[in-house]
Specification:
Strand 7 and strand 8 form a beta hairpin. The longest helix is centred in the C-terminal third of the chain and has 17 residues. It contains six helices and eight strands, in the order E-E-E-E-H-H-E-H-E-H-E-E-H-H. With about 210 residues, it is of the alpha/beta class.
């Protein structure tokens, strides 16, 4: 297969929250995959600087161990780096041999950096992705709902990734807001009151719990 195929956004600007995630078809460790094939589920699509690197290895081990928790949120995982498919396969095998952990999610190859650049994971002038740890949380309709970037020398928190997906799901399902540090089972917040009558009923009209539905 040649360079990954993708459908870029029509506007020439960085991706933003609320944009449709650019579709692509590429080789992965689980065979060919199209991003739109993950529709109807939530998806965490994340890039890592390189295979066989220390921080990336700890992230992949942690993500593999948490895969069932993501699945319980109806959320799939999809990794990407500029390394070749064969490097991905060798790294997956090495992780299994060293840690007894099987990587259950696909890893996309992107040696041409076409996907990384379409997603803004790689600067147009960058020769590699050595400083990029980008994550996109994409909803079941293919819309980007959250984005994070970390430097190459600091790993992401899998617990926070899980919390973020759970919070986005809960907020969307209840048309509510998730407060600071929200965890599953905690109260959600109602949108601010937009009418004077509502404001007069509650002095904390601007920050109030969501009524149970």
């Amino acid at each position: 297969m040649d360079a990954p195929q993708f459908r870029p956004l029509p506007q020439a600007r960085p991706l933003r929250l609320g944009d449709e995630a650019p579709d692509f078809l590429a080789r992965t460790t689980h065979g060919e995959a199209r991003l739109s094939g993950f529709r109807r589920r939530w998806l965490v699509f994340f890039s890592h600087p390189a295979d066989f690197t220390p921080v990336c290895t700890t992230e992949f081990v942690a993500l593999a161990r948490a895969a069932e928790r993501f699945a319980a949120l109806d959320c799939a995982l999809l990794g990407l780096s500029v390394d070749s498919l064969y490097a991905h396969l060798a790294w997956v095998r090495a992780i299994h041999e060293a840690y007894g952990v099987t990587i259950p999610f696909p890893i996309v190859e992107d040696p041409s950096m076409a996907i990384g650049r379409a997603y803004g994971m790689v600067d147009e002038t960058a020769p590699d992705t050595a400083t990029v740890r980008a994550s996109y949380v994409i909803d079941p309709q293919g819309i980007i709902r959250a984005m994070t970037w970390y430097p190459h020398n600091v790993g992401r928190s899998v617990e926070e990734m899980l919390r973020l997906v759970a919070a986005l799901r809960a907020a969307a399902a209840n048309e509510a807001l998730a407060p600071e540090g929200w965890q599953p089972g905690h109260e959600l917040l109602a949108p601010p009151a937009a009418a004077m009558a509502e404001m007069e009923k509650n002095t904390a009209w601007f920050c109030r719990p969501m009524e149970a539905r």
